[in-house]
Amino acid sequence: MNPITHLLAGWSIANAARLDKKERAAVTFAGVLPDIDGFGLIPERLTLESAHPITWWSDYHHVLAHNLFFGLAVAAACFSIATRRWVVAALALLSFHAHLIGDVIGAGGPDGEHWPIPYLWPFSEKVQLVWQGQWAINAWQNVVITLLLLAAMFILAYRRGYSPVEIISSRADAAFVNTIRSRFGKL
Fold it and tell me: Which domain holds residue 82?
């Protein structure tokens, strides 16, 4: 799935409990953070035609940060900054695993290649999360999931008075929510 879908899924999970802004942001980022292991895409693309290509993205994406131990570290970090520590840590771990599930079901390559996730890495590569029915990252199913998450985001923003925009700017978020509320009137 794409990063926007992961962000919207994480933010939806963050709204499963009444959390403050910092806690919602932490749970939301927990659902996006696994893709930090995609950092090697730019150097790989830049060196693709060189004599010594860097293959960091091919070698490490869906490996370094797509595993149980990274998820536990993310949950521990969220625990350490939260007021509602256990709730936030549990939701962060759920958000993290929603990312993994999204990748297992909907992050296939255009050539039909399946991209397994070594769940117990670095201690073992025996447990691989993979699904033979995995659809391509640009498949209609991902578009539908993203649209449903967008609809949930608009409904939650209307009802609760905040949206994922709050992560960037409280002022921009207020303008966004006011626009939604004025556009849709009473629901």
Answer: 3-135
Domain count, the chain: 1
**Is the residue at 169 inside a domain?**
no
The answer to whether position 146 is within a domain reads no
User: Which residues lie closer than 8 Å to 143 by C-beta, 6 or more apart?
Assistant: none
**Sequence-separated contacts (24+) of 167-173 with Cβ below 8 Å:** 167/24, 167/25, 167/28, 170/21
168 is a domain residue: no
Cα dihedral across residues 13, 110, 62, 129: positive or negative: positive
Q: Which residue has the tokens 């010594």?
A: 52
Q: Give the whole-angstrom CA distance, residue 133 versus residue 114.
A: 9
The per-residue pLDDT for range 92-115, each reduced to its tens digit, is 999 999 999 999 998 887 677 777
pLDDT digits (tens, 9 = 90+) for 38-96: 888 888 899 989 999 998 888 888 889 999 999 999 999 999 999 999 999 999 999 99
As a residue count, the chain comes to 187
Within 10 angstroms of residue 122's Cβ, the number of other Cβ atoms is 11
Secondary structure element (H or E) that encloses residue 129, with its range: strand 128-129
pTM score, two decimals? 0.91
Q: What angle do CA 106, 92, 69 make, to 5 degrees?
A: 80
